[in-house]
TrEMBL record:
A Pfam family annotated for this UniProt entry: TauD
Metal-binding found in the keyword field: yes
InterPro entries per record: AtsK-like, TauD-like_sf, TauD/TfdA-like
GO CC terms: cytoplasm
Coiled coil (UniProt feature): none
Official protein name in the record: Alpha-ketoglutarate-dependent taurine dioxygenase
Swiss-Prot/TrEMBL cofactor(s): Fe(2+)
């Protein structure tokens, strides 16, 4: 990764070339990951399988409580595995929300998150929440009352694919990793899908890749202001896990294409839930481009993985380079706990590569 992102003080010609390769980012929230991380293979001793060629890996018999006792190398390898495979699944976890927080903190720190970043506090988290500010309760019972993104999307669309999103991209410093454990679920239904932003980037033509790499997009969640009023909960406008995440604007500008510092791979970084406008083009052009990019996500099932939850299963994913979408095809109660860590302010390193190029595919 270039010194302009990592906070070193080089000033020679090589450093200036590196700086010229960088778009976006913020000097107050820079990754500490100086170059793409390499997996040492310490997780290979655990039985695992890739769920598709492109995205998803499931481990058997690996418990979060084992990971909490592990050395730093194994946690680094977990971070790399999540970032490379997009999402990792751990079955039948005996783990508390507090232990989830601890593991998420270890993963993001091992992956080089800025020292200013910690766990996210969602703007709609209730004061005095039973599980604490940094735990989001995912509950179908709350959704039935019309809470959050579910209500906003259901008001405008009857397509299940309208729910595709990456978490909290409306923040200047969005999430790097997220962790969700489902502890209450219906007998059938309620699956979650993930899609690879690396693969969507790779499906663009070189000319379109180059064009989009020159653009930014506005991400906006102002509908949370209406939700807070409607639900009678004050919006959390103090610091939400990063000094840059505060106030009630709930809006940020990010590169359309970003580089994941852990892998060094480029990914498309717009989503249905929060991206309102591609900047630097007309609104008509923005609408066409956003629709095309979102269609690439929703209409390519070979860039997706679908996960059927069992009780107490846990997923860990990289929000920088993936989208996810819940499936609301059930009536019985479904609930779980989610933790999001914050990474770096999104940036694009023009010298970085797409996944397929990097892997020689």
């Amino acid at each position: 990764m270039p010194s302009a992102i990592n906070g070193t003080n080089g000033s020679g010609p090589e450093d200036q070339v590196q700086r010229s390769n960088i778009k976006g980012g913020n000097v107050e929230s820079q990754t500490r990951c100086l170059k793409p991380m390499v997996n040492s293979g310490s997780l290979d001793k655990f039985t695992n399988r890739d769920l598709t060629p492109i995205i998803g890996r499931e481990f058997e018999g690996l418990q979060v409580r084992e990971l909490l006792k592990a050395d730093e190398q194994l946690i680094k390898d977990l971070a790399v595995t999540v970032s490379e495979r997009g999402v990792v699944f751990l079955r039948d976890q005996d783990v508390t929300p507090q232990e989830m927080k601890t593991l998420c903190e270890r993963i993001t720190q091992a992956a080089g998150s800025p020292e200013s970043s910690s766990l996210h506090v969602h703007p709609l988290t209730e004061n005095g929440s039973e599980l604490g500010d940094q735990i989001s309760v995912i509950s179908s019972e709350k959704q039935k009352k019309g809470g959050g993104l579910t209500h906003q999307l259901s008001d405008v669309s009857r397509f299940a694919s309208a729910g595709w999103h990456a978490d909290i991209t409306f923040e200047p410093v969005p999430s790097d990793y997220a962790m969700l454990k489902i502890h209450t679920l219906p007998a059938t239904g309620g699956d979650t899908l993930w899609a690879s932003g690396y693969e969507i980037y790779d499906r663009l033509s070189p000319a379109m890749q180059s064009f989009l790499e020159g653009l930014t997009a506005t991400h906006d969640a102002k509908f949370f202001l209406e939700e807070a009023t409607r639900l009678g909960n004050p919006l959390r406008d103090g610091m939400r896990g990063s000094p840059l995440n505060h106030g009630s604007s709930l809006q940020a500008t990010h590169p359309v294409i970003r580089t994941n510092p852990v892998t060094g791979w480029k990914s498309v970084f717009v989503n249905k839930g929060f991206t309102k406008r591609i900047n630097g083009v007309t609104k008509d052009e923005s609408d066409l481009l956003l629709q095309y990019l979102i269609n690439l996500v929703t209409q390519n099932h070979d860039a997706q993985v679908r996960f059927k939850w069992n009780k107490n299963d846990l997923a860990i994913w990289d929000n920088r380079s993936n989208w996810h979408c819940a499936t609301y095809d059930y009536e019985a109660a479904r609930a779980g706990d989610r933790v999001c860590s914050l990474g770096e302010a999104p940036f694009l390193d023009l010298a970085s590569m797409g996944r397929r190029e990097a892997l020689g595919l």
